[in-house]
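LOG
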Amino acid sequence: MRRGKNNGSSFVLLGIFALIVGGAFYVYSSAMFEREIPVISMQKNGYWNLKNPLEIAINDASGLKSFKVTLKSSTEETVLYHEQFMVSKESINIKVEPPKSAYVMKDKEIKIIVEATDGSKWNFFKGNSTAVESKYIIDKKRPQLNIIANSYKIGKGGAALVIFKAEDENLKEIYIETNFGKKFLAQPFYKNGYFISLVAWPIIEENFKATVVAVDHAQNSAQVYVPLFLQNKIYNVSNIKISDSFLKGKIAELAEEFDETQGVLNPIEQFKVINEKVREKNEKLIHDITSKVPTGMVSDFSMNEMYPLRNGAVVAHFGDHRIYSYEDKTVSEAYHMGVDLASNAMAEIRPQNGGEVVYAGYNGLYGNMPIIHHGLGLYTLFGHCSTLNVHEGDFVQPGAHIASTGKSGYAMGDHLHFGVLVQGIEVRPAEWMDRSWMKLNITDVINSAKEIMDKG
């Protein structure tokens, strides 16, 4: 009889134990009792100008129950946000505006504390809670900007030089912004706090405007307009009729070479693909390479007038807008972004300025092509070469025999395609081949700026 009672008690205990284990398993595995804390995303340990709002994002899979944002200074704590939700939300995005008292705050550093609790039943139905604290350096002062010297004018398709001073203890970035979206980067120049940059006006843009912009880590910004006289220039338009012999000759030859024309059988379509798609690919390579600007200090910058082909005659000009037609129908167009020079076959190419070879290889329509960087984001390009005497990474001296002319790529005869680029923008080689232009727009501007800087 006693044994029966013991058996009954054992079954009861086993049942209770099973309920406990089952309940524990349910709590452990149930989504209602999840244990993941909310995720708080915000800029950490940065700068704040007390003008732009701080952006904070809070996420939790089980839904948020409440959150609070507190500003803590050396003298007080101010609750900026405190909200509880009747219906939980999986995510919230808030923009924290500074309190009115912050504008007279003298603290150089404050803390922002973000607390959040989710709707989980974990922690005795209190939910999962977390807090993130970030320090911010208060910076309400915008950078100081002054233009020291600049070229008097810029022509369409041409270049100009700008030297300016930018001061801010928390300076983050400086650049020269244009009306067409291009940002020209500036390098430190001569003394701390001074910067220099070349700018360029693309021939396809009808207008030009340049503004120096300085931004600090707190997103305070300053802008100064660059006072350049704009000189318009009309470039030639050439209407070129495509012949059948041209299609069966040079175009058929190139069509066998490029991946883009494989499977394209129509000669006119081959021409269109070569003149547009292949050209775009080749020019992208050039623009990517020549858009790079060093970040080191520039103590000086001087250039000799450029004329890389001795006794070379100009056979095609920069900026020529070429419109191609076949059987009286326009089929394609392109801009000639350099100057073509020709003398005798396989003539020696000897640039008057040294620099670093940043590319030396075959580039489609441009054929064998070296590119040299001379500093300040100024590059020279030499297309259609027969042979190359330099390699990428070489540093060449003025007058070095870097290559010989030829007819590689999209060339009808032996010549040099000579291009000049400023931070990825093609500019008129004629300016850089003119000693007077270079003195007035480059050398004199630098010397004038140095005089002002030395006096200051």
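LOG (cont.) second protein
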Amino acid sequence: MPNIKSSVKRVKINTAKRMRNRIKKSELKTTLRNFREALDAKSPETPEMLKIAIKKVDQAAARNIIHKNAASRKKSQLQKAFAAMKAE
């Protein structure tokens, strides 16, 4: 446990930020899982799910929860999977 007042504050702030980031990352994973399930089921709402998933990925990248290159790669994978499903 830190002794310096500013260090104590930083620990509290870091804990709050870590919790916020974990929640956002969990939401992102849930959205991606829902999209993959809709994709496998060939659901008619898959295009809307794709739009939501891409939005969540962009938001996570904007908040530095995931790296911007990882976000770009993930969006590309989602769009490629959607295009493959559509082509079938």
